[in-house]
Amino acid sequence: MKKSPFINIILFLLTFCSTLVVGAFHAGADIVKDPMQVFQGLPFSVTLLGILLVHEFGHYLMSRRHGVAASLPYFIPFPSLFGTLGAVIKMKSPITTKNALVDIGASGPIAGFVVSVVAVVIGLGFSEVRDVTRAGEMIVLGDSLLFQILGWVVIGPIPSAYDLLLHPMAFAGWIGLFVTFINLFPVGQLDGGHIAYALLGKWHRWLSLALIGAFLTGGIAPSIISGHIEFNNWLVWGILLLILGPKHPPILFPDVPLDRTRKAVGMLALIIFILTFIPVPVSVR
User: Has residue 17 got a pLDDT over 80?
Assistant: First the structure.
């Protein structure tokens, strides 16, 4: 019996509401005084949900193509800086070959990456360069290499006393690139973990353990050196990856070799990971 998508739809609507409110907040709307101002969050909400939908349906459609049973996307509403913790799909049957694993793992990040870049380029065109010499405490988004390049192409160099106030579309695109970066970690059962498992086989687990160890070390070392507890981004990554775990389930036909096209896709995913890498995603200045 085919399962009803009722839960998927409810979660999507809740995530739409949470991102709409967050988008309105970032747009400077006062929804307590005037609830109708919440619709100022539409550019952010629609752009971000569009990116996440494309990402997850990339996985879903590629799973269907390879005969792997998969659920529709489950969106995760969350009252935070972004309004959501993203979306996931659930694999209901084993993946057959390494080629299928690369296709399923890479399709989401690559599709979401393309839409995110388009959103960033359009959004940067509407963003403002402002003087921040008299600004108080601010939340600052970290720049990936790609975001810096796109900013330079669309806006040009920004003077040292100024900063960029992102348009909601550009902010949603930044989140899309950030989600791409997170998912391409070559650890466990993340999208990057699928790709690494197909390319590296048994060495995938050792790479996962090494990365988890590196992040935890990078997160704990400052506390040891300074003598007081410091909770930083590296520790967050280490704990998150530790919770997700280093293991990857086996595929049905491991002896089927990985073809040249899928190896190229794996390299493309690595390049995207490097371009979207953000050492410090969010900070306060």
Answer: yes
Assess contact for 93 and 122: CB atoms under 8 A: no
| Burial class of residue 226 in the structure, from the number of CB atoms within 10 Å of its CB (0-12 exposed, 13-18 middle, 19+ buried) | exposed
Helix runs in the chain, H state only: 6-26, 42-65, 98-126, 145-154, 168-183, 191-200, 203-226, 233-244, 260-276
DSSP per residue over 147-160, as a string? HHHHHHHHT----T
Query: Domain locations in the chain?
Result: 6-183+255-284, 186-254
Distance, CA of 53 to CA of 72 (rounded, Å) = 10
Q: What is the pLDDT of residues 138-182, one digit of tens each?
A: 677 888 999 999 999 999 888 777 778 889 999 999 999 999 999
Question: What average pLDDT does the chain have?
Answer: 88
What's the pLDDT tens digit per position in 56-78?
999 999 999 999 999 999 999 98
User: Long-range contacts of range 147-151, CB-CB < 8 Å, 24 or more positions apart?
Assistant: 147/120, 147/174, 147/177, 150/117, 150/120, 150/121, 150/124, 151/124
Tokens 């970690």 -> residue:
185
d(CA 102, CA 107) in angstroms, rounded, equals 8
Distance, CA of 40 to CA of 36 (rounded, Å): 8
**pLDDT for residue 60:** 95
165: nearest Cα among 194, 130, 205: 130
